[in-house]
Amino acid sequence: MNNIAYFDPLLFKRPKGTVAKGTEVSFMLKMEDNQSPKEVYLMIKNDEANDYTYEKMQKNQNNYTKTLKFENNGHYWYNFKVVFDNFS
Q1: pTM (predicted TM-score)
Q2: Are residues 83 and 37 in contact, defined by beta-carbon separation less than 8 angstroms?
Q3: Rounded to whole angstroms, what are the CA distances from 2 to 6, 25, 34, 72, 75?
Q4: How confident is the model at residue 86, as a pLDDT?
Q5: 23-46 burial: b if 16+ Cβ within 10 Å, else e
Q6: What's the sign of the alpha-carbon dihedral 39, 65, 76, 4?
């Protein structure tokens, strides 16, 4: 099975590693050339939340990007959701 998307936190997250409160953090998800998702979301959850929040990412060629500013201290977890049209 081939990958449809690729993320490496050392290459596609800026700044790298831990950041101070109030810092903008940019994420990029790289899509394979033959993939055309309907929507791509960055899913964010901190240790105090029960659920993820979904932030729609912007398309830029075959990449999807999103920049967020984290205003609260804590540990944040992130993941991606890639949505394709339903097939009949």
Answers
A1: 0.86
A2: yes
A3: 11, 29, 11, 37, 31
A4: 64
A5: eebebbbebeeeeebeebbbebee
A6: positive
Q: Judge contact between 59 and 39, C-beta under 8 A.
A: no
**Average pLDDT by consecutive 10-residue portion of the chain (88 residues)?**
83 92 95 87 91 95 93 91 76
Q: Do residues 64 and 28 touch, judged by C-beta distance below 8 A?
A: yes
Collapsed DSSP state (helix, strand, coil) of residue 85: coil
Residue 56 amino acid letter: K
Using CA atoms, how far apart are residues 47 and 66, in angstroms rounded to an integer? 21
Q: Measure the CA–CA gap between 18 and 25, rounded to whole angstroms.
A: 10
Helices vs strands, H then E, count in the chain: 1, 8
